[in-house]
Every structure is written in C-alpha cells, then in structure tokens.
Write a structure and sequence with these properties.
The protein has about 130 residues and is mainly beta. It is built from one helix and eight strands. β1 and β2 form a beta hairpin.
C-alpha cells in the first residue's frame, strides 16, 4: 500500500487496477461503549546531528476523513495510520480534541482527576508516499 497525494488516498501497489484502498477502523458491537477512528500521521524524514537519516519530524495528524487537508505533502514525507479508541459519547474532530481526550487537564490538587476518554491503540508501519502509479 502507498499514499497517493494526487487522490489524496491510499492505493495497493501490487494490484492490477488502480482503485483506491479505504482502510477501516476496528468495528465494535451495537452495545459497545467504545468506538475506533483512523487518523493519518504525517512526518518527514530529517537528518540528525550525526548525519543519520533515521529520524522524523512531526508535520500533522488528521482524521482519515480529512486526508485532503494534508496535501500538499512535503518532500521526504512518511505516512502512518493511527487507530484511536474513544468512548462512544466523546466526539474528537481535530488534534486539539484528541490531545484533550488523551490527556485531560487535572485541575489543582484534584484527589480524583478526570480519566482519559481516548487512547492510541495501534500505529501502522511507515507507508510510502508516492504519486506515481504502480
């Protein structure tokens, strides 16, 4: 699979056709108290002080439904899919909401600080970014 910024979306490099691949989050039952969402993490490769090219710098993190907001993709980009588990009654629309859900603000010296309502449960291996067709 690779990320094609011209769609924007994902494609299967080995497939004979050029149809878009649509990754799906984990499904849950009707009575489940949690839900899963897919996010796209965009980083770019950087060189560290010793000249190694195995480091990355954060660029953006968006819900998969908002892929078009990640374009144009910087050169040397790396894409990963991130699966987030959240409570059903919690709406997470952007990065600020996600951070707040994962790290709720404790106020003062609360004896019982608020629980997190979301967590990252899975991160994919790096996905190649390439606008060329297979």
């Amino acid at each position: 699979m690779f990320f094609d910024p011209s769609l924007p979306g994902f494609r299967n490099r080995d497939a004979k056709d050029k149809n878009q691949v649509k990754p799906q989050p984990t499904t849950t039952g009707d009575k489940s108290q949690c839900a899963f969402d897919l996010w796209v993490l965009l980083t770019r490769r950087i060189v560290d002080a010793l000249g190694r090219r195995n480091q990355e710098s954060f660029v953006n993190l968006k819900r998969i439904e908002k892929l078009s907001e990640l374009v144009p993709v910087p050169s040397e980009s790396v894409v990963r899919l991130v699966e987030v588990q959240r409570r059903q009654n919690v709406s997470i629309g952007n990065l600020d909401d996600l951070v707040q859900a994962m790290f709720p603000n404790a106020v003062g010296n609360d004896i019982d600080p608020p629980d997190a309502t979301a967590r990252i449960v899975r991160i994919s291996a790096p996905i190649e970014v390439d606008a060329r067709t297979p």
